[in-house]
Amino acid sequence: VQLVESGGGLVHPGGSLRLSCAASGFSFSNYAMKWYRQAPGKEREWVAGIGDVARAGDRARTYADSVKGRFTISRDNAKNTLYLQMNSLKPEDTTVYYCNTYIYQNYWGQGIQVTVSS
């Protein structure tokens, strides 16, 4: 299993970024996927989740209260890619973001830095 995040960077408050997570080594469409984030010295925080191909639709998407209405999780099963569209970004969204899946154990990407600053 390999998960590789991309799309992070520096953005002004109120701006947008789209994170991508390229997945390989497993049947991507058959597994739920999640985004987490972790600031230095803090525990890893769940951000959003999306169901597998059998559980499609908006009801299969869940969000932490801190990002609800601003972030959108999606997936392209044909491209084996998970996305996180982040709008109305705030300085407190600054941290490292990780994609995750659970297949008998947790698998994590290497993480991608998102910095929201003026």
SSE arrangement:
Elements: E1 2-6, E2 9-11, E3 17-24, E4 33-38, E5 45-50, E6 61-63, E7 71-76, E8 81-86, E9 95-102, E10 106-108, E11 112-116
Parallel strand pairs: 2-11
Antiparallel strand pairs: 1-3, 3-8, 4-5, 4-9, 5-6, 7-8, 9-10, 9-11
The biggest beta sheet reads: 7 strands, mixed
Question: What order do the SSEs take from the amino end to the carboxyl end, as H and E?
Answer: EEEEEEEEEEE
Class derived from helix and strand content: mainly beta
Strand segment tally: 11
| Straight-line distance between termini | 37 Å
Helix content: under 10%
- Runs with pLDDT <50, length 5+? none
Tell me the radius of gyration.
13 Å
Overall 3D form = globular
Counted by DSSP, the helix tally is 0
Percentage of residues in strands: over 45%
Mean pLDDT across residues: 94
Q: What is the compact description of this entry?
A:
The protein has 118 residues and is an all-beta fold. The protein has strands spanning 2-6, 9-11, 17-24, 33-38, 45-50, 61-63, 71-76, 81-86, 95-102, 106-108, 112-116.
